Amino acid sequence: MEQRNKAVASHFLEETDDRNRETAYTHLCTAAYLEHDPAMPQETVDREEAAQIYQELLAAFELRHTAESMVAEVDLLCARFTVRGRHIGEYQGIPPSGRTFEVSGQVTLRFQGPKIDEAWFNWDHQGALEQLGAPPPST
Hints:
alpha+beta; 29% helix; 4 helices; single chain; Nuclear Transport Factor 2, Chain: A; 6-stranded mixed β-sheet
């Protein structure tokens, strides 16, 4: 089971050649899938909302995620990943700059059978914005 979950997680995290994770959400996640990510406009979204947010990211960035390491036990999997991107479209009011970024992140996935049922992402969103030249958040 752990090896199967690692294969599913790798396919889910690392974009395909056509950069379309939307099909991964449909095929690799349950209909009840929930995604938690403090970098999103609302911290918890369902499968369709997650796919839509990811499509918006693809409009703003050429993205590449790389799973660096994974640990799996029963229905849980933790992965450390690197996300790289080039800013090609407007994002959060920031016009495209052509700049690149590279940041790290971590995700915990909970499986229901062979599919991902819930994901908790934590990645350096602010670090990516800083590398793009965005001003630091006001305090």
